[in-house]
Amino acid sequence: MHDSKTAALRGxxxxxxxxxxxxxxxxxxxxxxxxxxxxxPLLEIVPVQDAxxxxxIKNLIMDFDQFDHAIFVSQNAVHGAFDWLxxxxxxxxxxxxxxxxxxxxxxxxxxxxxEPEACAGDTMDSEALLxxxxxxxxxxxxxxxxxxxxxxxxxxxxxxxxxxxLDYCELYQRLLPTPAQEQLRxxxxxxxxxxxHSGETLENFHRLLGNLDAEQRRALLTQPVxxxxxxxxxxxxxxxxxxxxxxxNAGNTAMLAALQDALSAGDC
Length: 268
Prior knowledge:
Blueprint: E1 13-16, H1 24-32, E2 36-39, E3 44-47, H2 51-62, E4 69-72, H3 75-88, E5 97-100, H4 103-111, H5 126-130, E6 142-148, H6 154-161, E7 165-175, H7 180-185, E8 193-195, H8 199-209, H9 214-222, E9 225-227, H10 230-238, E10 244-246, H11 252-266
Parallel strand pairs: 1-2, 1-8, 4-5, 4-6, 6-7, 8-9, 9-10
Antiparallel strand pairs: 3-7
Helix pairs in contact: 2-3, 3-4
Organism: Microbulbifer elongatus
Enzyme class: lyase
Domain Tetrapyrrole biosynthesis uroporphyrinogen III synthase: 25-256
């Protein structure tokens, strides 16, 4: 066994799957730990192009000062929303409180000039946000959730049940990149672990495994997969991944700690 988790990644091959525009920092973090990193992006973030959908976004942005609570589910939601806000609000209105799902999302909000509400602990997932005092009794208050098309329904459903007047502002689509299938089929390594930063990335990975030969599929199903939450890890096990490891959140620090734990455990 290694003397320290800090040596757990040295010489290990890690398959990463983040969108191409978000993968560089994660790859550099792993390489700094001595890992060999292969990247096959399994998610692509594409801004909505449909004219009606863009008009719906504009209408919500123009009404932004009328909202009591603004929830951002991802860094992509922050960047997309604030790009729109910059076009129509030279100064951010004082009305809404800001909320972030995830530490990286919170940092992105701060970088754009707003301060998100703080969550206790380090999970910062939807469940943690819903436990905040300011969201316990939003009856009659307006809530806007910035997200991609077809996001997870828990937050909106719960807030609606609590009496909130809810709007979704759906800014982007999450797609499976066209090259991913062939890149995975041509992948000749068996990684020591694979990192999957979201539930949708997990689903895409599982879908592509169905087109691989039996040996490669079996190897990728049995090697450690590092997931951003217990909920996503449970889903991975249901899909047949036998070594699903849950991080405390999707941030690079938490994902790295879970990866080190998984590989250290394998050396015992």
